[in-house]
Amino acid sequence: MEAIGRIKPKRLRPGDTIGVIAPASPGEPELAAAGVSWLEERGYRVQLGVTIDQTLGYLSGPDAARAADINAMFASPDIAGIVCLRGGYGTMRLLELLDYDNIRTHPKVFVGYSDITALHISIGRRTGLITFHGPMAASDMGKGLSDYTWEYFSRAISAPEPLGPVSNPPAAQPPVFIVPGTAQGYLAGGNLSLIAATLGTPYEIDTCGKILCLEEVGEAPYRIDRMLTQLLLAGKLQNAAGIVFDVCVDCDTEAKPPSFTVAEVLGDRLGNLNKPVLYNLYFGHTADKATLPLGVIAVLDTEAGGLVVTETATSD
Prior knowledge:
Layout: E1 17-21, H1 29-41, E2 45-48, H2 63-75, E3 81-84, H3 100-105, E4 109-112, H4 117-127, E5 131-133, H5 147-158, E6 164-166, E7 176-179, E8 182-191, H6 192-198, E9 211-215, H7 221-233, H8 236-239, E10 242-246, H9 262-270, E11 277-281, E12 292-294, E13 297-301, E14 306-309
Parallel strand pairs: 1-2, 1-3, 3-4, 4-5, 8-9, 9-10, 10-11
Antiparallel strand pairs: 5-12, 6-14, 7-11, 8-13, 13-14
Helix pairs in contact: 7-9
Domain LD-carboxypeptidase C-terminal: 184-298
Organism: Methylomusa anaerophila
Keywords: Carboxypeptidase, Hydrolase, Protease, Serine protease
């Protein structure tokens, strides 16, 4: 069932309680503890989910317990926002176990990336809740966020103004347009592997008229090619208004000759879609990452130099 309308969560403020959950793989205890301390040092209270220190193979506890954690955090009046511990694998196993009516009636800031993509897609489509593709407690906060990452994260979840232009870190090369142009639409997307894995299920991504943001890590160019071709065959890339691809960490290094580069694959697979395509934006598996509010209006514009988020993601 598709959600009708969009819901903006209340913006977070120091003193609010953030729930930290582990909906996918377990995290290293030291990094988890450091991530909690990092949030507390910035004035937030933290409540830990029940599976935060559990391990069941490559999962952080049984499916039912991890799903119950998500449902309980949304239902609790004491929790103002939710930050995922890490990605890894496991969120697709939870999609049929979530209480979407509960999430819809108790909207909150929800943050994560990588494997968390499946939750972003399913929650967004079934509740209309704007969620946040951003840093996680163990993977990022446990190591300390850079000034760049903290600025985008704090503004996305707390500021009453739109995020505005999404630029790369000062010392990094700016993003480049593989295909120039202008497009406007709601932000959607996440990890390319997860998006491809949901195709053909009731939880597949809706890209129609969207600015589709794709990120990946450690995938050889031919595997990027395969997943983009899968999205093309499903009509998902043709339906998008514009496409943004991240700095693909350890992707070209996985190439074995003869090979194309990731940039060449993007040019080949996306270059003839007659829509703007931006490459090399920092929002994925890099230490520096911008937080992207999924579900708000953004503009992709060559003249403006890249991606501009034009709508506020939170409410009072």
